[in-house]
């Protein structure tokens, strides 16, 4: 079977919902094993409590913490991160910064890598986050998979929503406090596409 790891960081649960949609799409492909992992939280607990994030994180505390094995044991890895000032969250960066040994041994070379993200504003840096994330994957020798414009939702201008050719995304804020059905559907398509390609390459 082709093995897919979905590794995400989520502070308030929005990116977790996208991760679940990615997994749902990937599981539509037979002959694929999908596992979801979360990146370790680094924000002090008192701040998490005051911000409401601690309560939000209760919804996905059952998801196991990502380790280096979560990377090496997979054929394809889909990473999910909130956007922080146009870049990945520090928690995800910290996790990736522990992969130097894997890099030196070339253990991720030839694996598939794909990215999704969430932002709190329409122009909050969705594309720059995904594109800058690609740099790390390329240093590891990974094969990057995005979303083609054959997906109609990417060209839909009837509403403001996430979704880029670089990877799925969602806009979440106080008015729209969850990824929309369209954004979740785009994430499903991404998960399915990664699974389809992984099956062709590794099964």
Automatic annotation (TrEMBL):
Its cofactor is FMN. It comes from Defluviitoga tunisiensis. Its EC number is 1.6.5.2. NAD(+) binds at residue 12. It comes from the Bacteria. HAMAP family: NQOR. This is NAD(P)H dehydrogenase (quinone). InterPro entries: Flavodoxin/NO_synth, Flavoprotein-like_sf, Flavoprotein_WrbA-like, FMN_Rdtase-like_dom, NQO. GO terms for cellular component: membrane. FMN binds at residues 10-15, 83-85, 139. Keywords: Flavoprotein, FMN, NAD, NADP, Nucleotide-binding, Oxidoreductase. The lineage of its organism: Bacteria, Thermotogati, Thermotogota, Thermotogae, Petrotogales. Substrate binds at residue 103. Belongs to the WrbA family. The keyword Nucleotide-binding applies. It is an enzyme of class 1 (oxidoreductase). Binds 1 FMN per monomer. It holds the Pfam family FMN_red. It catalyses: a quinone + NADH + H(+) = a quinol + NAD(+); a quinone + NADPH + H(+) = a quinol + NADP(+). Residues 4-194 form the Flavodoxin-like domain. GO terms for molecular function: flavin adenine dinucleotide binding; FMN binding; NAD binding; NADH dehydrogenase (quinone) (non-electrogenic) activity; NADP binding; NADPH dehydrogenase (quinone) activity.
